[in-house]
Amino acid sequence: MFDHAATLPPAFWLLAAIATLLFGMSKAGFGGAAGSLGVPLMALAVSAPFASAVMLPILLTIDLIGLVVFRGRADAANLRIILPGAMLGIALGWLTFGHVDGRWIKLLIGIEAVTFALDRFRAARSTANAVLSAPTFGPGIFWSSVAGFTSFVSHAGGPPIMQYLMPQNMDKMRMVGTTVIFFSVVNFAKLGPYAQLGLIDLSNLGVSLLLAPAIPLGYFLGYRLLHAVDMRGFNLVTAWTLLAAGAKLIYDGIAG
């Protein structure tokens, strides 16, 4: 099981450890879309399909941790809208897989994420108090479908769903709890379609197991930092990570 691990370059292990920490921190609620940078970071040393295969068991493990840590903190009204929307997006990604140019998807989502992040910076500078808003069916279905689709085809579901949830200005713990359940359902729902398409490679499980010790460390750091910042700081950190993720998606879309 661990034979493949011995052939990997040292640079991979450094980048993979950082990526796992980023995933853990972002899934714990600190950094929002920072996890979107994980696979591209690992792809600097290995192929993107290999990086995705290695990270899949890690992502599912982090999702299970999140379901325990954030149990009872999700917004049920939002989940009733965005979970069905995500399933529509996953189904569309499954049906169109191989017919959609992932570069264009990354470019469009990257541009949208950067635009949204800049708007969040503008909102953060406002002296007016943030107003709590209710879930809305139309935008919720749209953005969650986009998130399900982009998560399926390019592992970039974070920016779209944040564009729906962040303007609601809900409590940070409730928002994180909502995204935890959302992406747990999305990631586990992708297993069947991925297996049918031949995208699951368990031969790399040994590499994933060697990276596993970084999971609780990243999660612990993210959870502590989540409690340490106020709501304004939380929004700013999320906006910065959206900006970084969007810029990386634009670069990937242009560079191919």
What's the arrangement of secondary structure elements?
Blueprint lengths: L9 H18 L10 H5 L5 H22 L6 H21 L5 H24 L11 H18 L3 H8 L6 H18 L1 H6 L8 H7 L2 H15 L2 H25 L1
Global outline? globular
Q: Would you tell me the overall average pLDDT?
A: 85
Which range best describes the helical content: under 10%, 10-25%, 25-40%, 40-55%, 55-70% or over 70%? over 70%
- What are the low-pLDDT stretches, counting only 5+ consecutive residues below 50? none
Count of alpha/pi helices: 12
Number of domains: 1
The termini sit apart by: 32 Å
Our estimate of the beta-strand percent is under 5%
Would you count the extended β strands for me?
0
Descriptive report:
It is a single chain. The protein is mainly alpha-helical and 256 residues long. The chain has one domain. It contains twelve helices and no strands. The longest helix has 25 residues. It is globular. The mean pLDDT is 85.
